[in-house]
Design goal:
By secondary structure, the chain is mainly β. The chain is built from no helices and 12 strands. The chain has strands spanning about 10-20, 30-45, 50, 50-60, 65-70, 85-95, 110, 130, 135-140, 145, 155-160, 165-175.
Length: about 180
């Protein structure tokens, strides 16, 4: 493992529950559903494991983009530059609709994916638009992850489509080192 971390545990949970009702003569029956997905990752490299995690809250000026180099520009919480080879979990939350710190709430839409050069596709076969307040989260299951190739597919683009306002977003990547 090419990481300076000595341990990592990650739990990725997606849950949705809903209840519907229909008023009929003399009663209002209800139907409920609940779906839950949990992925637990332990420290290491291989199926069901990860040894790197990176997160950040980032601001994009109006009508700009940034290409995140997944194999050499991201620095984790302890100051080490990451060189990801696989990603197990990706989560992006467009927080543009919230007044946080210096950021004023806006309606900026961001787009995830499709860098011009060396685009990392991962679970993305096309770009994903996230309106202000929206989130995208995806895991690869307990498999080996979505591959990152330093020479072919290591750039993740995040673009602010709003010509008038800045965008604010959170991003989390959980994966493996070489």
């Amino acid at each position: 493992m090419a990481t300076d971390l000595t341990n990592l545990s990650a739990r990725f949970t997606v849950a949705l529950s809903a209840a519907v009702q229909k008023a009929i003569a003399l009663s209002t029956p209800e139907a409920r559903m609940s779906v839950r997905r949990v992925l637990n990752l332990t420290f290491g490299t291989g199926a069901g494991q990860a040894d790197l995690v990176w997160w950040d809250r980032r601001t994009l000026a109006k009508d700009t983009y940034e290409d995140l180099d997944l194999t050499g520009s991201l620095v984790h919480a302890f100051g080490h530059t990451l060189a990801l080879t696989n990603i197990k979990v990706i989560m992006v939350i467009n927080r543009s609709d919230q007044a946080l710190g210096e950021h004023e709430a806006t309606d900026a839409t961001i787009v995830i994916g499709l860098a011009d050069s060396h685009p990392w596709m991962g679970p993305l076969s096309d770009a994903i638009n996230l309106r202000a307040g929206a989130a995208f989260a995806c895991d690869c299951g307990n498999a080996d992850g979505w591959n990152i190739d330093e020479n072919m597919s290591d750039m993740l683009r995040i673009r602010n489509l709003d010509a008038d306002d800045e965008a604010l977003y959170d991003i989390v990547l959980v994966g493996e080192s070489a």
